[in-house]
Amino acid sequence: MMHSHWRDCQEWRKSGLPLSTTSNEAAKLYDALLTQYTGWYDDDSVGGMEKTAKGLLSADPDFVMGRAIVNGLTAAGTAKSPLLDKQFSRELDDMVKLAESQPITPREKKHVEAVSLFSKGELNKATFVWEEILLDHPTDMLALKFAHDAYFYLGQARQMRDSVAAVMPSWNATIPLYGYLHGQLAFGLCETDHWREAEKYARKGLELIPRDGWATHALAHVMEMQGRPREGVAFLSNTIDDWTTCKWIACHNFWHWALYHIEQGEHAAALDIYDSEIGKRANSGQMLDIVDACSMLFRLELEGVKVGQERWDDVVEIVRPHVDDHLLVFNDSHFLMAFNGGKKKSYSDQLLESLRNFVANSEGAQRKRQQDGLPLLESLAAYAEGRYADAVDLINPHRYDIEKFGGSNAQVKPN
After folding, report:
1. 415 falls in which pLDDT band (50, 70, 90)?
2. Contact, 400 vs 375, CB < 8 A?
3. pLDDT-based confidence at 71, cuts 50/70/90?
4. Residue 313: its pLDDT value, please?
5. Which of 36, 62, 154, 236 has the fewest CB neighbours in a 10 Å radius?
């Protein structure tokens, strides 16, 4: 069942997760935004996630958790860097100052701390804080979901699995958003090669919430890992009316659908899905949609399919504004795939030079990740230039470490 009865201040207190606001409207919109984030969809009754976020901040501008969820969602989207986006940087600073000036709960203070750490690239430290929250408040879905995303970006599959498994005994079907736990656990189980258990939890999640796009995604991964592409195509096509309601994950599920076709040698079918869905959805500005487009074209070309300059040009224009972001190696590597595929060597060189400058002039965990990822990008560049021996020499020492740059097994360890 989809959660749509938004909780007011009193209901949040009764749940053991009190919010430091006197505005019932703000409390309800916080619930609405959290629900849409958890379910990967836009709820038309509240105008979708963007309008909900604006309404939340307007309902109570001093509501710290309102600031925390909105800024956390921006950071988790990995499309904005506070180092480059001054407005986002100010919003983060304002959130911290507001938290310091108010008598908010320890849980809320920790949320602000975690979001601030995440936005600075300190993803590991942020997960430690969210896990501290979950020790005392295991039904805090925002802490669980933000940690889930951070573990994914860090390539920490066991932590992603165990974080959900640890809190499930504290939940029950009467707690809003309970059904989504099953898809979250299923994905962690799949990424740690427990495919049978993953399928069980994914199917249970879909039994509880048929429109759970993340549970659909988890089951798609199981079928991918077990070499069941025909079954995967049938599954996604038969349930398309359910999971396409989840616009924030729909493009990626279409990516899985196209991948099934590639594995069966059905390249034209994969390209059709790219043209009708993936390529168009990449214009959303959402980073997951963008990297899906880069990846799919690159995979098709590796299969010997000439995807054409026009498709590459479209993706290059979407990617170009992010050349200096350097938020995740996973993202940067996909940007380079686009520049290489589009034969835009000057853009590739610009990205690599920008990355080297970032490594030389930055500090902290984000710098370390980008430094470790530099050989991967240099290898991709060498491959694009036909320097295949150099590409192998660059990547060979790091080939067992690729997963630490984030992404799923299907993305970084293709069969």
Report:
1. very low
2. no
3. very high
4. 97
5. 62
Count of C-beta atoms within a 10 Å radius of residue 410: 17
DSSP state letter for 321: G
Residue length of the chain: 415
Report the alpha-carbon distance of residue 332 to residue 314 in Å, rounded. Answer: 17
Q: What is the DSSP string of 65-106?
A: HHHHHHHHHHHHTTS--TTT-HHHHHHHHHHHHHHHTS---H
3-state SS assignment for residue 268: helix
What is the separation of C-alpha 148 from the centre of its chain, rounded to a whole number of angstroms?
9
Q: Are 65 and 19 in contact (CB under 8 A)?
A: yes
Residue 409 binned pLDDT confidence (cut-offs 50, 70, 90): confident
Count CA atoms within 13 Å of residue 256 on its CB side: 33
| One-letter amino acid for residue 273 of the chain | I
Burial string for 84-97 (b: 16+ CB within 10 Å, else e) reads eeeebeebbeebbe
Classify each residue of 40-49 as buried b or exposed e, where b means 16 or more C-beta atoms within 10 Å of its C-beta. Answer: bbbbeebebb
Distance between CA atoms of residues 76 and 70, nearest Å: 10
The alpha carbon of 373 is separated from its chain's Cα centroid by a whole number of angstroms, namely 19
pLDDT mean over 76-93: 92
Q: Which amino acid is at 67?
A: R
Q: Report the alpha-carbon distance of residue 124 to residue 150 in Å, rounded.
A: 8
Rounded distance between C-alpha atoms, residue 290 and residue 282, angstroms = 5
What's the Rg (C-alpha) of the chain?
21
Region of residue 141 (phi > 0: left; psi between -120 and 50: alpha; otherwise: beta)? alpha
The span from the CA of 168 to the CA of 280, in Å, is 37
137 phi/psi in degrees, rounded to 5: -135, 70
The SS3 assignment for 168 reads: helix
Instruction: Give the lowest-confidence range in 30-34, 80-84, 190-194, 303-307.
Output: 80-84
Phi and psi (nearest 5°) for 244? -75, -10
Instruction: Give 325-342 pLDDT, tens digit per residue.
Output: 998 999 999 999 999 999
Reported as half-sphere exposure (CB side, CA atoms, 13 A), residue 125 has a value of 15
Question: What pLDDT was estimated at residue 366?
Answer: 87
Q: Other C-beta atoms within 10 Å of 346: how many? A: 8
- 383, containing H or E segment: helix 364-384
Whether the Cβ atoms of residue 198 and residue 25 lie closer than 8 Å to each other? no
The pLDDT, as a whole number, for residue 413 is 66
